[in-house]
Amino acid sequence: MSIQNNVKTGIRNPFEIVQKQCEECAGLLNLSPDVYELIRFPMRELHVSIPVRMDDGMIKVFKGFRVQYNDALGPTKGGIRFHPEETIDTVRALAAWMTWKCSLLNLPLGGAKGGVVCNPREMSLGELERLSRGYVEQVWQFIGPDRDIPAPDVYTTPQVMAWMMDEYSRRVGKNQFGVITGKPLLLGGAAGRNIATARGGIYVIEEAAAEIGLNLNNATMVVQGYGNVGYHAAALAHELLGCKIIAVSDRKGGIYRKKGLDPRLVYEYKQTHGSVVGFPDTEPITNGELFELEADILCPSALENVITAENAAKIKARLIAELANGPTTPEADEILSEKGIHILPDILCNAGGVTVSYFEMVQNFNMYYWDEAEVFERLQRKMTAAYRAVLQTAQKYKVNMRKAAYMVALNRLAEAMKLRGWA
Ligand code: GLU
């Protein structure tokens, strides 16, 4: 399997980062060569072509992937992204991170990820529905409630999940709500799932703040990315913890207001204007400048590779809460560690999404649904336990929080593989 960086965009190949992280961990944990070989590459992957009838009557063929990285701990789990720059290597990396994430949170699940190369912004609702159903048509024999359970990710929504669940159910001839998570509430969705990633992040931010002695009331926070995760994180941090959100951004740029922003009003503005840029009474800033702001907490909440060797040294935050997957390159990680910044690594910080997805599956199997308070109470227990396990490992082995998170996750995975006789 050759791994190449994208020469066109110069973007660091995320799967190369996974390889590097695995190598480091194998050394730290003294993993046997067979275990190392098993964690370095996906167990299975599917490449599909999806013909879709567009509104103009023409057929367009979309490329899609589903990577099932490792299922030692249980059926594989992970979202599907619809993104114009999707590549097989991004999907592989994200599938590996899902595997570590489920293991770290002690969920009985392995990791997977899916992707379709498309730009949902340029597609009508009808085209999106046909693409969603077309994806399932190609992968349905490969997924299932006890095999591989997709979910939402970048640019996929509860509506997309509803179409996919419906398509799968039709093909197998019975309702199979448990085949996919992140569904609308009426179709077996879990209460609180749409804000679960952000909510999980808030629980670990609270733990981390207590650990480093940061008073969250009036603490300043910067949020990069204002989609489902970034927006809810800003709103919850503001409303539940009393944080002051001084800057937010989306792919078009950012806004800064020293006195703090009202996250909900900014979101409403974004809904009507297509971007946070231009929100009244704010100064425009670039996404680059946003990372360098004087703030207590920095939340990268969009895509991978945004904290790099170029900007890491300029980051002034005390706490970085990685709500995105893979936002920090390994080189940047070293710099941040040396600066003594407390990092909540992605596989811990954004694991609230998959944890509530797991709760959704449990509820689907039992045909009995919990209220939001019960979901969040269980989520808090899971997130807090994972944070403490990571912190203890970091202290015991004198490694940074990211390495510690990998150590907890990969150790558990290695144990499972040994017990199954794979290694
Ligand atoms: N896409 C989310 C993630 O990256 C959630 C995955 C899921 O719920 O299965 O963690």
List strands and helices in order, with pairings.
Blueprint lengths: L13 H16 L3 H8 L3 E10 L5 E12 L5 E8 L4 H17 L5 E8 L7 H15 L8 E5 L5 H15 L23 H17 L7 E5 L3 H14 L2 E7 L2 E4 L6 H11 L9 E3 L1 H5 L5 E4 L18 E3 L8 H9 L3 E3 L1 H4 L2 H15 L5 H26 L3 H19 L4
Parallel strand pairs: 3-4, 3-5, 6-7, 6-10, 10-11, 11-12
Antiparallel strand pairs: 1-2, 2-4, 7-8, 8-9
Helix pairs in contact: 1-3, 1-14, 3-14, 4-5, 6-7, 6-12, 6-13, 12-13, 13-14
Protein architecture, described:
The protein has 423 residues and is α/β, with parallel strands linked by helices. It has helices at 14-29, 33-40, 88-104, 125-139, 158-172, 196-212, 228-241, 263-273, 287-291, 330-338, 346-349, 352-366, 372-397, 401-419, and strands spanning 44-53, 59-70, 76-83, 110-117, 148-152, 220-224, 244-250, 253-256, 283-285, 297-300, 319-321, 342-344. It has a seven-stranded mixed sheet. The protein has a five-stranded mixed sheet with strand order 1-2-4-3-5. Strand 6 (220-224), helix 7 and strand 7 form a beta-alpha-beta unit. Helix 3 (88-104) crosses helix 14, helix 4 (125-139) crosses helix 5 and helix 13 (372-397) crosses helix 14 (401-419). The longest helix is centred in the C-terminal third of the chain and has 26 residues, at 372-397. It is globular and about 55 Å long. The chain starts with 13 loop residues before the first helix and ends with a helix.
